[in-house]
Write a structure and sequence with these properties.
Blueprint: E1 2-5, H1 15-19, E2 24-26, E3 32-34, H2 44-53, E4 59-62, H3 70-73
Antiparallel strand pairs: 1-4, 2-3
The structure holds iron/sulfur cluster (SF4).
């Protein structure tokens, strides 16, 4: 599975990073980025918790083969 962050909605409060730092990391621009793509299956619970905890509903989960909008893909970066 893949995660994305909608940067039009993210307010940079780092809740996702605190829940699942293996997948989410705040960038220098103050927005959350996805640093594991696709993320490991054993982190599914933490990623779902981050989705539910995000105050602006900015995080989405996608199937590996899903067609993801380019603007959302910009939130993914590999380390
Ligand atoms: S929890 Fe949501 S609003 Fe907060 S940093 Fe993460 S994606 Fe952005």
């Amino acid at each position: 599975m893949r995660a994305t962050v909608d940067h039009d909605l993210c307010i940079g409060d780092a809740i996702c990073e605190s829940i699942c730092p293996q997948v989410f990391e705040l960038g220098d621009d103050g927005l959350s980025y996805v640093i594991a793509d696709p993320y490991p299956a054993d982190l599914q619970g933490e990623v779902e918790e981050a989705v539910e905890s995000c105050p602006t509903d900015a995080i989405a989960i996608h199937q590996d083969d899903a067609d993801i909008e380019d603007r959302l893909l910009k939130s993914i970066r590999s380390k």
